[in-house]
Amino acid sequence: MSAPTTTGVRGGFRLEGVHKVYGTGEAAVHALRDINLEIPPGELVAVLGASGSGKTTLLNVIGGIESADSGSIEVAGVRISHRRPSSLGRFRRDHVGFVFQFFNLIPSLTAAENVAVMIELTGRGDRRDVPRLLDAVGLSDRAGHFPAQLSGGQQQRVSIARALATDPDLLLADEPTGALDVATGRTVLELLQDTSRAGRGVVMVTHNEVVSTIADRVVRTSDGRITSVTRNDSPADAAAIRW
Ligand SMILES: Nc1ncnc2c1ncn2[C@@H]1O[C@H](COP(=O)(O)OP(=O)(O)OP(=O)(O)O)[C@@H](O)[C@H]1O
């Protein structure tokens, strides 16, 4: 099983002095505090931290789903800070793919249609690539199945094929194995590792220390801050890890 290949190494990003606050006054939650982070293209990054430490918020400001309150954000060569999320649709369409914990597939569409609909909605990619995309995630024989007829791991693999259909520079995955058992989770992690080895940036949020060992770089968060960024010169092979 391997992710589609691509030319060039892509998907670097840089955040400087990024803050994000939810709510106001006594109800204010400082979800991100003075975030500084620079990641070169093509890396697999794990964001590791306790519940509520800001991992999802960090992923969402990188992906342009949420806007930061202050600071500078550049992703895949595009400066996205100071823009409202509503104006970031084109940036997301052209540069970013998303994978969620609970897959977010459309239940009334088959696996192939779930991938094709992304191509239709964004105008990026080519419908004729759908079989190749499903083959790359090992699901050629499930193209006509609906999500309810697929296992959790298979649904997550469809969602990765969907995310890659637009040929994004950067793949953002929020707890992609959180709803999966170890064996199926491992196949998903292999795909993420293959995706970065093929030259895309990948950022994966996880609670799990073992999962983070497959990353080129581990970013630890606590209480809205980055507490450490560690470069891993010999990442574990996703196919070999156990947790
Ligand atoms: N829309 C929102 N409105 C108010 N507070 C929010 C909102 N989204 C997140 N928060 C708060 O911001 C903080 C960071 O949340 P975030 O979801 O980024 O953390 P996380 O590390 O991803 O947590 P988890 O591992 O539980 O998903 C938390 O205190 C959370 O309660």
TrEMBL record:
Spell out the protein name for this chain.
ABC transporter ATP-binding protein
Q: Which InterPro entries match?
A: AAA+_ATPase, ABC_transporter-like_ATP-bd, ABC_transporter-like_CS, ABC_transpr_LolD-like, MacB-like_ATP-bd, P-loop_NTPase
This protein's source sits in the domain of life called Bacteria
Location of the ABC transporter domain = 13-243
Q: Which GO terms describe its molecular function?
A: ATP binding
Q: Looking at the keywords, is ATP-binding present?
A: yes
Q: Which UniProt keywords apply?
A: ATP-binding, Nucleotide-binding, Transport
Instruction: Give a yes or no for keyword Repressor in this entry.
Output: no
